Amino acid sequence: MSLSTLSPRTAPSAPGNSSGRHGRGFWLIALAFLTAMAFSTVPAPLYPLYMARDGFSTFMVTVVFAAYAVGVLISLVLAGHISDWVGRKRILIPALALEVVAAALFLSDPSLPMLLLARLVTGLGIGMVTATATAYLHELHTAHRPDASRQRFEVVSIAANIGGLGVGSLIAGFLAQYVDVPLRTPYLVFVVLLLASIVAVAVTPETVPARLTTPAYRPQRISADHGNRAGYLAAASGAFASFAVFGLFTSVAPGFVSGALHHPSRALAGGIVFAVFGGAAVAQTLTNRLTAPAKVRLGLLAQVVGVPTLLVGMHTANLSAFLVGGVVAGIGAGVLLKAAIGTVAAMAAPARRGEALAGLFLIGYLGLSLPALGIGIATRAVSTATAMDWFTGLLLVMLAGVAVLFRRGTATRTR
To answer: Residues annotated as region Disordered (predicted)?
Structure first.
């Protein structure tokens, strides 16, 4: 079915007549956003259980993880922008339904092919959710509080997005540790939460006015040419480095904690992932008032300190050093990612902002999957700790390059 043949929607109510509904809708969408993002990290603390049951290698875990990133990339390019045309609800509800389908796949057959398919479907849904829910929250906030600053929207959207990634691992880890059937119970819980989220979206007012005609479908355009190529490349490389750290903790790290560090607790594995993403979300919120250059410096410094500290924890089997390094690295990744997004949003013309951000997230999600997959491949020949040595060295070189590119981008902007 083409987009132009979709049945007409009811136009959204005027903000002045439904401010209360928009206010309630803001929180309903925030909860739906958080639930979807949380579901995407449910498998993270469960990977060691899959490995123990089916004999998965670290490499296969990273392949399963990469399937998720591939799904996100496909969805970002093909569907991430369509809600601008057909409405937020018409994209968000099917996206959440895809997450329910993914949960059903996890429950139906935990074999490797089904895990790959389930993660791919999860990524397809998340690619649709991220851009749509963020835009929806902004519009509901504006309709409810037209004269207020954007601070509430920014804090809540960050908490739902980055914080949700940590919440999913935390819930899954505790359920897997303390409830029967650890490879099924977390998905059953999230089926209920996702179905409730679909209802929450359904009762929230639409914010995109109905169109008499819908534009002809085309994939999301992606471009790096936005007036300051050096600045854009700096932001993109910063996003790549930030997502690389996040990918490490949602793929390889839980298995390392269980194996090399000899801490098999699923609750601990989920708690570590939560701490990394929670630190990133809190840091993003607390650095709202910092200038972009200050955010870049803080983000780079925290990653330069955090990742080597994490590496020391791995080599010495010191859980405390591993955890501290992970949290500091997560803080750096969160702040650097926020600086990258703000840089691109500021440099792009309004008519091409979606295109510019799509390119940024495309590169970011490559950072989520490729380094983790590289670590997995390396572990077939060397130990995980040695593979992490290589990862750390490459990341530090990349961060140095990010610093140079941001400096050049700033110089170009001020000429």
So the answer is: 1-20
